[in-house]
């Protein structure tokens, strides 16, 4: 389900179950990683890109729109 959408983000919710909490944690991680891989492969411009720049020794996160 799409639980939230803005002009720059989409939040998805996936419901799943497993036999125990350890298996559920592994399942959640696998589902999240495979969803991201699917988007990365099929919609290469669909994920944000963040770059780090060091200016005077302090790291600064910079979001880059391409």
Automatic annotation (TrEMBL):
Record protein name field: Mechanosensitive ion channel family protein
Species this chain originates from: Chlorobaculum parvum
Lineage: Bacteria, Pseudomonadati, Chlorobiota, Chlorobiia, Chlorobiales
């Amino acid at each position: 389900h799409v639980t939230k959408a803005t002009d720059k983000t989409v939040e998805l919710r996936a419901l799943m179950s497993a036999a125990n909490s350890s298996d559920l944690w592994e399942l959640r991680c696998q589902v999240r990683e495979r969803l991201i891989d699917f988007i990365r492969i099929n919609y290469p411009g669909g994920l944000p890109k963040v770059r780090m720049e060091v200016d005077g020794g302090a790291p600064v996160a910079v979001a880059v729109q391409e």
